[in-house]
Design goal:
The chain is α/β, with parallel strands linked by helices. It has twelve helices and twelve strands. An eight-stranded parallel beta barrel has the order 1-2-3-4-7-8-9-12, surrounded by four helices. It binds D-mannose.
Length: about 350
């Protein structure tokens, strides 16, 4: 297992030197600030790589290369965007990147209703309240926790929602298949493993289809291109929103088959209905057994990347929702501690 840490190369980025001080962390899951659909230039990738390397870390994974909506909708111009996507993957391969995390969620990525849910210990965390979602009109323009706000105008958003009505779940599967059939053979040649992130939360939101949600659907996704280059970013927090997903069993199954290229490990506390809040990584803080999760990776002989995932806001830290330094650093060390214990007791 190789422990890495997500880092955004933005103006107020977390100091790479601080990340290097987290015991056990050797590398970065990084990205470039390129608009969705544009080709990532090799020189720009190499510049970020060398910035990371100067701090004594390695740029190991790219998280993420977003898929253009035209591809997910299966529109005519998808071929152009697929060509761009492949060109980016080729450049990443040339720069020595071996894993690319991406997702196939329509319109928006992960979603929460609350960025600062106060937890009993005084920290705050991201939370999802299903009652709020049910009552919410997604087009009313006031969803602070969906990245669509910064990307789409309300007119565009309305059109997108309409388009997805006619695509539906099966249409989304077809469009995913079209994308994978074009991209995976090229990713294989480039030596880049494509690691699909599950939908977060793992159910449809606002009537938009979501398909990477369950064992059955993950099996279907992996079967579309039966190759280790068509792999998963196995995210415990996303799949763990639903107790239908038996995470340790799924990790054993997919890691033994070499279909996990990247693991996001975090805890989540399931509340009633479909509501949940994020918690510290520590097992007792949430609903997931993180030791069993790490043990599943260990037993499967997993040698890929793992990173801690969203953190709470603790110790007065401000900054990016879920992606501060402190609590994620605690998470990284906790996960490495479990791994070290597993290695020692199994010697
Ligand atoms: C959330 C992340 C996701 C992930 C994307 C990949 O915290 O895990 O945003 O990076 O879904 O495209």
């Amino acid at each position: 297992m190789k422990m890495i840490f997500r880092w955004y190369p933005e103006a107020n980025a977390i100091d790479l030197g601080y990340i290097r001080q987290i015991p056990g962390v050797k590398g970065i899951a990084g990205e470039l600030p390129v608009a969705v659909g544009e080709i990532w230039a090799l020189d720009d990738i190499l510049a970020v790589k060398s910035q990371v390397e100067k701090s004594g870390l390695r740029l190991e994974v790219i998280e993420s290369v977003k898929v253009h909506e035209e591809i997910k909708l299966g529109r005519k111009s998808r071929d152009l965007y697929i060509d761009h996507y492949i060109a980016t993957i080729k450049n990443l391969g040339k720069a020595g990147i071996q894993v690319v995390c991406y997702d196939f969620m329509p319109v928006f990525d992960w979603m929460r209703t609350d960025a600062e849910r106060l937890l009993p210990d005084g920290s705050t965390a991201l939370a999802y309240d299903d009652e709020v979602v049910k009552k919410k009109d997604p087009l009313d323009g006031d969803f602070a926790l969906c990245d669509w706000e910064t990307v789409y105008s309300s007119n565009e958003l309305e059109k997108l929602f309409k388009c997805y009505e006619s695509v539906g779940e099966e249409g989304l599967w077809e469009n995913l298949e079209y994308f994978l059939k074009a991209v995976i053979p090229e990713a294989e040649k480039a030596g880049v493993r494509m690691a699909m992130h599950p939908d977060d939360p793992c159910w449809p939101v606002f009537g938009l289809p979501r398909i990477i949600t369950s064992e059955e659907n993950i099996d279907r996704f992996l079967a579309i291109a039966d190759s280790p280059y068509n792999a998963l970013t196995f995210c415990t927090g996303s799949l763990g929103c639903s107790d239908d997903n038996d995470l340790p069993r799924l990790i054993r199954k997919y890691a033994s088959a070499d279909r996990i290229a990247f693991g996001h490990v975090r805890n989540v506390k399931r509340l009633s209905g479909r509501s949940f809040e994020e918690s510290a990584h520590y097992s007792k803080a949430g609903s997931l057994d993180i030791v069993e999760i790490m043990k599943a990776y260990y037993d499967a002989g997993y040698e890929g990347y793992i990173r801690p995932d969203h953190g709470r806001r603790i110790w007065g830290e401000k900054g990016g929702a879920g992606y501060g330094l402190y609590d994620r650093a605690l998470g990284a060390v906790y996960l490495s501690g479990i791994w070290e214990t597993l290695e020692k007791v199994n010697k």
